[in-house]
Amino acid sequence: MGDFDFAVIVNNLPFLWQGLQLSLLLTFLAVLGGIALGTLLALARLSGIKPLALAAAAYVNLIRSVPLILVIFWFYFLVPLAVGRPIGGFYSALIAFVMFEAAYYSEIMRAGIQSVKKGQVYAGQATGLGYWQIQRYIVLPQAFRNMIPILVTQGIILFQDTSLVFVVSLRDLMTVSSIVARTEGRLVEMYLFAALVYFVICFAGSLFVRRLQVRMAT
Amino acid sequence: MIEMQSVSKWYGDFKVLTDCTTQVDKGEVVVVCGPSGSGKSTLIKCVNGLEPVQEGRIVVDGAEVTARGAKLTQLRAKIGMVFQHFELYPHMSVRENLCLAQEKVLGRSRKEAESRAETLLTRVGMIDHIAKYPGQLSGGQQQRVAIARALAMDPIAMLFDEPTSALDPEMIKEVLDVMVELARDDGMTMMVVTHEMGFARKVADRVVFMDQGAIVEDRPTQEFFDAPSSERAKDFLSKILHH
Ligand SMILES: Nc1ncnc2c1ncn2[C@@H]1O[C@H](COP(=O)(O)OP(=O)(O)OP(=O)(O)O)[C@@H](O)[C@H]1O
Ligand SMILES: [Mg+2]
After folding, report:
1. Better pLDDT: B54 or A215
2. Which chain A residue lies closest to B48 (C-alpha atoms)?
3. Residue span of the structural domain in which A206 resides
4. How many domains does chain A have?
5. Which pLDDT tens digit goes with each residue over B94-113?
6. Measured CA distances, B131 to A28, B107, B143, B198, B208 (Å)
7. Is residue B29 over pLDDT 50?
8. Is A81 part of any domain?
9. How far apart are CA B195 and CA A29, in angstroms?
10. CB-ligand 1 contact for B190 (6 Å cutoff)
11. Position in ligand 1 atom list of the atom nearest CA B36
12. A1 inside domain
């Protein structure tokens, strides 16, 4: 046991901190983008316009049956082809996460929208509000609020999934920890440290969700 | 003001409304009653186009609701509607509930909308609760706020769908009082689905009785109560009057 040297963590703290920042930034942006796109997909599926609903359903089911790592790869190679120039690992990963997570968020938002009583829509319509106004001011705020715990839980999963970006050589917390582990020959210390950071953040997230659920239940 | 001509409506194979014809003139109060499932809510929802109809014509204030491409949102803004379960927006304060459509549909400024909201909340006795959320109010209070919300749009007519049937008995009166005042003092045109026969006797000009999707009786109030012509109406009246 005397062999462990945790000073390696302290010495590399700025580098590790950069990695964590990238993981958190990617999570944050992907959650925002995923919820936005997911909400549109959910609205499309519930729109009652057949082709639109079918297209959205097909998209959601396709994405949900493919491993995330594949989607990250696809976008890494496809997006530059589509826009005609390289856009870098970060943006291609971000787009991949948004497109991927949107499929999951759309299912959550769909359940959220369906949890809002039909009478609320009638009430909005009866005062002359249009479809988008009703969604924007009446339905989505309630749908969103009802689903916050699940949305946050999905965000925690997403945070863990960001560790997959090593495949497009992005330096997230996991990748940075590996680099330090190998260059300094401190595998155990570094992987313990990385595990601890992921654990603390995710555990704090779940505690937050638990508290929200208790508050919403009362 | 409101005219329905031979309106029929289906849900799939199920015929909810059969050849319904009636009208509500300006300033008139018409009570709609009938057994559960007879199509009262459906009928009233057709008036402002919340439910489409397959046959017949509905004309409100000169505009045909049932026409293709009818400007439904404009029309609905002119007709207030009050629901059995209030349908206040739970995530908004009472003030915001009253201001939303005034601002987004009528284009009123925040200040105008708030001052109109305050006037109406005072009128229904709810001004002290303006900053509260619907969940903090009793059913009767919520329904009075809902009436104020509808009135804030300065409607030319009001539709009520069983406004008191989700309320505890002791709260029914406070809501009916507001409605009676609206009918008597404002001369508001009203179409009211209700089983409150006391209310009907007090302010209704006519009573429409529905059964199985059809309008079975459409008569002046006094006549309806004194001598209902159909067996079904007699039956219905004896049931609800002796409860
Ligand atoms: N969206 C719908 N799809 C299919 N059937 C429906 C729908 N809404 C209502 N119905 C049916 O239409 C009939 C009339 O319903 P409606 O709600 O208009 O009755 P009601 O007279 O208002 O009854 P209640 O007194 O219970 O409110 C009922 O048999 C009901 O089951
Ligand atoms: Mg009904």
Report:
1. B54
2. A126
3. 6-217
4. 1
5. 999 999 999 999 999 999 99
6. 34, 22, 16, 34, 39
7. yes
8. yes
9. 54
10. no
11. 25
12. no
